[in-house]
């Protein structure tokens, strides 16, 4: 099968990144992204890991200066877990956080962790001080080799608009509309998608990036879904935040706090702190979760509820459909 055209269903972050990657790596490919502004995107997913930094700048070769100007990310050095016996535990992205052996020590750092683990490596020491990066002369950041130690917090709307713009500049076509019907050929492969406004879109390969709706892989091709609800209980999140107050520090890490029936993230941005309480609806009602969330974070403004499921489709590539992002699978775990 020769693939000359690809249609991506959805314009969330997974969808636009897929479209951008295809167009950057295979410029002659016709790539279309269809999305519905009425259905919108899930709008959570702001904490990243270093692979994302590598992917965007090294693999795709996107300009760092422009990215920083337009997206304004916050450097993320790791995750602070406030649970368990210790007051907190800082996990950093340096791959040898516990295996690192300083020249003057006889054992790796992990051996000494029971005496105290704060600041055990450089990113951990910076997290202790709420500092993002060491500086060179004149206060400019001393960046580590690309993407090795550092990830980002990305604000959804600025990341999405950077992705939108980058896709457009790369030559991705972006028709707007909601799926009305999906047509299959005699082999069961998808041949064409019709939108509610009458547009008809065809392609050789379809990327189902429609989020939890799984419009193609789940609804049309009926690929079985293996749920992980027996072991991963959380299925909802109440999400909110507040605008930074004058002088409020911007934390260069994601925080993951223990709650009664789940956990709560904190993701800092330059002008806003976002929080989300991920919980199990079998163990707490939405009203109680909202109350507990507000007691824990008194500065919250408005909140909204996000429902999700943990699990994955058995196959993510079926016939001429490849599912990515939440349409393929989702594993809820504390950041
Ligand atoms: C509680 C929670 C916390 C998370 N935290 C993180 C995190 O910290 N970091 C992280 O990287 N990820 C996180 N994620 C995952 C993150 O949400 C997703 O990886 C990311 O948003 C990608 O989503 P998506 O593009 O697959 O789906 P969505 O953003 O939902 O996009 C789906 C797209 O499909 C379109 N669509 C759907 N149906 C139709 C239709 N019928 N017709 C036309 N268009 C349609 C929608 O309009 C939308 O554009 C989290 C997820 C949850 C649930």
Topology (SSEs and partners):
Layout (H helix, E strand, L loop, with lengths): L4 E5 L3 H13 L4 E5 L15 H10 L4 H8 L2 E3 L1 E5 L6 E4 L29 H7 L22 E3 L2 H15 L8 E6 L5 E6 L4 E3 L2 E4 L6 H6 L4 E3 L8 E8 L10 E6 L2 E7 L3 E8 L6 H11 L6 E5 L3 E3 L3 E2 L2 E3 L5 E2 L5
Parallel strand pairs: 1-2, 1-10, 4-13, 10-19
Antiparallel strand pairs: 3-6, 4-5, 7-8, 8-9, 11-17, 12-15, 12-16, 13-14, 14-15, 17-20, 18-19
The chain binds flavin-adenine dinucleotide.
The site of flavin-adenine dinucleotide has 34 residues, from α1.
Secondary-structure-based class equals alpha+beta
Order of helices and strands: EHEHHEEEHEHEEEEHEEEEEHEEEEE
The CATH homologous superfamily of the domain at 5-47 and 154-227 and 312-330 corresponds to: FAD/NAD(P)-binding domain
Could you say what the CATH topology of the domain at 5-47 and 154-227 and 312-330 is called?
A: FAD/NAD(P)-binding domain
Radius of gyration: 22 Å
Distance between the termini: 39 Å
Bound molecules: flavin-adenine dinucleotide
Structure summary, number of beta strands: 20
How do the strands of the widest beta sheet line up side by side?
Answer: 5-4-13-14-15-12-16
Q: What is the level-2 CATH architecture name of the domain at 5-47 and 154-227 and 312-330?
A: 3-Layer(bba) Sandwich
> How confident overall, as mean pLDDT?
92
* Count of alpha and pi helical runs: 7
Q: Strand-residue fraction?
A: 25-35%
Show unreliable segments: none
Please write the CATH class name of the domain at 5-47 and 154-227 and 312-330. Answer: Alpha Beta
Assign a percent range to the helix content.
10-25%
Biggest sheet architecture: 7 strands, mixed
Shape: globular
Oligomer: single chain
